[in-house]
Design a protein that fits this description.
Length: 174
């Protein structure tokens, strides 16, 4: 669910229960196909029908993909970017709208640098940043959950529950 935004079962009814018992998950192509093969293989291994075919909890925690996500390679959000997020989230709506319009006039190099930062936040490779991804990134720099949620709401201009690249770009301006 955390990788794709939904469980690997069609519904929460008798059919779903039978599919779970038979270890026959449904992977929504729209949500599952964009994930890297390494991630899909990892998920499939965790859902194997035979317990002997599933990795142990310790082995799962040692999976290369999971370790790369949690390797402690440094914070995903620097202090400058965090300050930009805070200024944007606390700005008046008119100012946020103006920043959103002006964001696309940033120099190409700056947009490319910000795009790299945005993609670093997109842990699930869906092209948007979910609340979970955002909170994970801000947690790495010591931001409390309540503040992370408030900042997320301030950056999510269209209120769709995700931060798009355009919204990120607007909020990232110094």
């Amino acid at each position: 669910t955390m990788l794709c935004g939904g469980p690997p079962w069609h519904a929460c009814d008798e059919k779903a229960f039978e599919a779970i018992k038979a270890a026959k998950p449904y992977f929504s192509p729209r949500r599952f196909d964009p994930l890297p093969e390494e991630v899909k293989g990892f998920v499939r291994s965790l859902l194997a029908a035979e317990p002997a075919e599933r990795p142990s909890a310790a082995a799962a925690l040692e999976h290369a993909w999971l370790r790369s996500c949690c390797s402690g390679a440094g914070p995903l959000v620097g202090t400058e970017l965090l300050q930009s997020f805070r200024r944007f989230a606390h700005a008046l709506p008119l100012r946020r709208t103006c920043l959103a319009r002006a964001a696309w006039s940033l120099p190409t190099e700056e947009r490319e640098r910000l795009q790299d930062q945005f993609l670093d936040l997109c842990v699930y490779n869906r092209g948007t940043v979910s609340l979970h991804e955002f909170m994970f990134a801000l947690e790495s720099v010591g931001v409390a959950t309540a503040e992370a949620e408030m900042l997320f709401q301030g950056l999510d201009l269209d209120g769709d529950g995700e931060i798009s690249y355009s919204e990120f770009l607007a909020a990232s301006q110094p």
